[in-house]
Amino acid sequence: MNNNEVLNGAPLQEEKLFALADFYKVLGEPSRLKILYCLYGKELSVSEIASGVGSTVSAVSHQLKILKNARLVKYRKEGKNSIYSLADDHISTILSMGTDHINE
Length: 104
Known about the structure:
Elements: H1 3-7, H2 14-27, H3 30-39, E1 44-45, H4 46-53, H5 57-69, E2 73-78, E3 81-86, H6 89-103
Antiparallel strand pairs: 1-3, 2-3
Helix pairs in contact: 3-4, 4-5
């Protein structure tokens, strides 16, 4: 499926519709959005994210697992630390467009 199919009103396949709904459910949790915005344009460790969003390392770790499973964030190992970043440019674009929309 390409973007033109969606823009032209073609119906989504049921499987893709449910996957899209799950995607939006993940984005619908404020603490996860805080983490995503904290990572916007940066790579951070779990403790840096926790400090940035005003939460505990344990709570952030739990949310990062959900975000990672939804392919919204990725990580790399640096010694014993996991360094997180947004998964790709699509995620940055979605955050930016959402912010633009609510600011209008």
